[in-house]
Every structure is written in C-alpha cells, then in structure tokens.
Amino acid sequence: GKKNYNYSDVDCLCLQVNTERFESDSCGINHVEGGWPKDVNPQEVEQTIRFRKKVEKDESYINSILQLGSVMEHCIRQNNAVDIYQVYFEEEEEVEEAPDAPSAKTINVFRDPNEVKRTVTGLSWHPDGGRKLAAAYSCLEFQKTSKDMSLDSYIWDIENPNRPEMTLKPASSLICLDYNPKDPHTLVGGCYNGQIAYWDTRRGSQPVEVSSVEQSHRDPVYKIIWLQSKTGTDTFSASTDGQVLWWDVRRLSEPTERLVLDLSREGNLDRALGAISLEFESTMPTKFMVGTEQGVVVSCNRKAKTPAEKIVCTYDSHHGPVYALQRNPFFPKNFLTVGDWTARIWSEDIKESSIMWTRYQMSYLTDACWSPVRPSVFFTVKMDGVLDVWDILFKQNEPTLSLKVCDEALYSLRVQDNGRLVACGSQQGGATLLEISSGLSTLQKNEKSLELRLKERSRSEQSREEDVGREDGEDSPDQLISRAQKDFYSVVETELRRRRDREDQENRVRTH
Amino acid sequence: MLIEETLKRIQSQKGVQGIIIVNSEGIPIKTTLDNSSTVQYAGLIHQLVMKARSTVRDIDPQNDLTFLRVRSKKNEIMIAPDKDYFLIVIQNPSD
C-alpha cells in the first residue's frame, strides 16, 4: 500500500551542493562545410559528387524541388512585375501634408519634490535648444506659507521628471525667473521679499549675487526680464510696490534706474499702480510695457530723458490685474493681454479698446503667451486647470483646442522656442510638459498675410466703433462695471442653462 | 530532367543571380554559384530558416513557415523551405 511520508520520518541530510561553473557564450558559427554523413569525406571531391548524385536521384528530392520551384517562380515573377521601391512622383514638389487635427499630448509632469507643495509661479525655457526648464516655486496666498515650506526652485531636464537637475536656493522663494538668452548658464530671479537674485549654474545652487534688501522692491517681484544691452548684464523687474527697477547683475547693490508707475508723472509712490507683469521685446528695444493690478497697461519709453517722459500712454485693459502681457513676435505692434476672464489683443495705436477679445470664460485666466512660430496662435491657462490654444485665423470665438491639464489651478505658462513644447505650472507644484500637434506649431501658407488682413479689419472695425462710442459720451466707471457684471452674469446664465438643457435631454433619452 | 527544366526556367527569369538547393543538413546539392559562396549561403541561410520557422511556430503551433524573403539594398534572397530541402534564389529585381 501507499506509505505516507512525513518529514519527521525521513532523516534529511543537508548538503551544500554547488555545481561547477559553466560559462556559455552566444556566437555565430562560420560554416565551412555542411553536415556531411560519416561515410563521406568532404575533402574528397569524388565522394561528394557521388553523394550529390545519389540525392538527385531520390524521389522525395524530385518532388520537393518541383514543388518549391513553382512557389519560387511565382515570387520571382512578382518581383519582376512591380518594383516595390519605385519612387513615385519624384519630379513633383512636396505636397504639404494636410494639417492633422489639433491635439496635444502630455509628455512629462515635473512634481515639486517637497512635502509642502508650492505653486509654480514662473517658468523659463533654457535658451539653447530648450532641453531644460527652470521653474519658480512660491506660495502667493496670503499668510498660507508655513515655516516648513521650502524656498527652493528647480531646473528640470525635460527628459527626467524624477529628480530636478539643479536646485536654486534663494533666501526668499522665487516668484519669477528668466534665463539669460545670451548666456544660458545665467538666470535672474525675483523673490517674494522684493529682492533680485542672480545665478550662474556653473557655480552652484546659491545665487552668485543678491540685491540689497533696502534698495530692492518692497513687495514681491512679479516679473523679471533680461534686457538687450552691450554688456548683456542688464535686467529689469516689476513689483506691486509700484516700481520698475533696472539692474546690472554685476552690481546688484542698487538698481541702475527706477521708475515709479505714477500716472500723474510725479513719481509719487502712494499713487503708483502695482505692477504685476512686464513686457520687453528685443525687436523693439526702446519700448516696454507694464501690466498693473488695477487693470491698466502702461506703455513706456526706455530712452526718455526724464522719469516723467518715460510713461508714454496707457490702455484700460481689464477689470482686474493684467496677469500676462506680450507682443506678438511677428507683429510687434499687436500685443496680447490677459486678466479677469478674457484674453485681449490690442493694437498699439488704438488706446480705447482692444481689437479682438475672447468671450468671458468660465474661469479666471492667469497667464498667456503667443506661439513663437505661428503668428495667429496663442495659449492661455485658467484657474480651472485648463490650457486653451487659440488660433484666431481658424476660430475667434472659442479656443481651437482646450485641454484639462490638471484638477487644480494653472498659474504659469511658457512655450518653447520651437512652438511645439508647452510647459504650464499648477498650484500644487506640478509643471506639465505638453507637445502640440504639428498643425498648431508649423507656419501655414499665407498665414502672415491672412493674419495681417484679419488684424487690419478688426482695427478698422474698432476705430469705427470708437467714433460711435465717443459721440455717445464716455461711460462712467460705475456704468462700465455694471455693464461688465451684466455681460458676465448673462454668459454664466447661458452656460448653466445650456448644461441644464443637456442634462434634461440626457435624462429624457434614458427614460425612453 | 524535370528538375533541370524547372531550374533552367528559374535561371532565365529577369534578375536571377543564383540558385542553390540545400538539404536539411546544410549540404548544398545543386548550385549555380561558386563553391565558397554556396557554402556560405547554405550555412547562414540554414540557421535563418530554422529561426524563422521556430518563430512562426512558437507564436502559433499550428502555423508553419511557407516562404522567406530577405530584402536587402543590393538584392533579394528568397527561400522556399520544405521538410527536407531548401530552394534558395538570389534575385536583383531592378537588373
């Protein structure tokens, strides 16, 4: 019968067994001769010939080869029938591919490695090829900053989202930063406490120089941009303390120049507007613009002799702070502003109103920028975590592409110089890198001339409207506010109604 | 005789550079190329066919290799395999 063995029955003998090491290697064999049968000597020609003749007489050989032969002939004829490598239409020009449907895909997400997450408030692309992205992290919510909150900002290699490539350690968290377009090793950053810091990435995480506290801004520095100059060491910064300061990074102990954004041109800080965005285009080096908390865009002349003459004119842009301000890289006379719930395109010559504007969006817009490769494309980000891509040649009423990047608010946005990569920063410290489809990032035929015509038309429409407006008399601020309120509420109402109708429709379908 | 005719017909097709018949041991039975090339082709292609065949059968055991074409810059090597023999033809279609 069967015997059930228990482990206790058998005396186990434990031995360590180790086999001899055997090394194996993979390599090819160089055939010199086939596998001749034992009775045939491959060197003897007579023997080999005899062997071959024997095989050729074999019936199975004959049948096999006949069969294989016909299969083979078929394929040979096939090859001769059509040359599959023939190049068709060699002489014709390359036909432009139909642009693929607008789309974007997320490439990577760079997350704040610290426990307490900060908002990505500023982004700057490395000027040489855009393989690196610098992100400024800070907490702008009043009194929300905790003692444990890290002050560090990071430079990321876009291929490695696991760990930042480099850490920037300012004394106070950075709100904004900018890579020097002329020297990709250096960056400037604007701090929460109003100081400016200058880094050289070859010299470590600590700033090489920091501006003195007394001479810096009295409020967080919201924007800092490198200027074009002979020495390549000039930069300027803007803050809600009402000042725009110019700096030479070799001597940050005090600013080289100051401008107080007092529209009465008396340099009175108490009456100054708080600056929250700054614009500078190297193609127009004598001008610059400042976007303010009060919703006014101030256009300035750098070369003016007296501070009073520096402020040239203003544009009443938005009902709230102008969070983004940028000239169109192809048509510098036009600039884009973003604030309240709209994005607006302006023409320098028309001060009273923008020439094009979007509908009131459902969420506050926090940043925007033009595409560096397509004059009619710009990007905006909103507080509901959505990135919108607008192509004004295609659709003016709504974005051409709308993407929900994340669930929290997006605060910053920067397009890389190739126009295909877009980085946007969120409230929870995530910087998302997206790639835009080629249709939205390659210059279309006639785009520039079409755009010019579109803008001309909008401009002339605008000036006509203004003439009418002026006849009616200017609206008082209260009237403007009530009109804005009315517009806003009507848009919200229509949207809510639309959603309700859609839901009712769906419910009706379901019950059927 | 039949074989001779078949092979002659194949040889006369446009672009055919060489024909080799190899048995399952890798021994070339008939060839139109010189000896050293024949032996090289026979040995290397034998290994390739074995690998291709096992690939097809590993993916689906009920499937089997029926034909193998290796297209290269200069020509195409076509191999018709059978249980015991292979027929190898080298063709340059654009000739």
Automatic annotation (TrEMBL), chain A:
Keywords of the record: Cell projection, Cilium, Cytoplasm, Cytoskeleton, Dynein, Microtubule, Motor protein, Repeat, WD repeat
* Region: Disordered, residue numbers: 452-487
The reply on keyword Nucleotidyltransferase is: no
| Keyword Membrane on entry | no
Instruction: State where the protein is found.
Output: Cytoplasm, Cytoskeleton, Cilium axoneme
CC per GO annotation: microtubule; outer dynein arm
Coiled-coil spans are: none
GO MF term list? dynein heavy chain binding; dynein light chain binding
- Compositional bias of kind Basic and acidic residues: 452-471
Q: Which family does it belong to?
A: Belongs to the dynein intermediate chain family.
The protein's name is Dynein, axonemal, intermediate chain 2b
Native organism is Dicentrarchus labrax
TrEMBL record, chain B:
Q: Name one GO cellular component term.
A: cytoplasmic dynein complex
Q: Which InterPro entries match?
A: DYNLRB1/2, Roadblock/LAMTOR2_dom
Q: Which domain of life is it from?
A: Eukaryota
What GO MF terms are annotated? dynein intermediate chain binding
Q: Where is the Roadblock/LAMTOR2 domain?
A: 3-91
Q: Name the coiled-coil region(s).
A: none
Q: Which UniProt keywords apply?
A: Cytoplasm, Cytoskeleton, Dynein, Microtubule, Motor protein, Transport
The subcellular localization recorded is: Cytoplasm, Cytoskeleton
Task: Give GO BP annotations, semicolon-separated.
Answer: microtubule-based movement
Signal peptide residue numbers:
none
- Function according to Swiss-Prot or TrEMBL: Acts as one of several non-catalytic accessory components of the cytoplasmic dynein 1 complex that are thought to be involved in linking dynein to cargos and to adapter proteins that regulate dynein function. Cytoplasmic dynein 1 acts as a motor for the intracellular retrograde motility of vesicles and organelles along microtubules.
PANTHER family referenced in this protein's UniProt entry, alphabetically: DYNEIN LIGHT CHAIN ROADBLOCK (PTHR10779)
Q: Which family does it belong to?
A: Belongs to the GAMAD family.
> What protein does this entry describe?
Dynein light chain roadblock
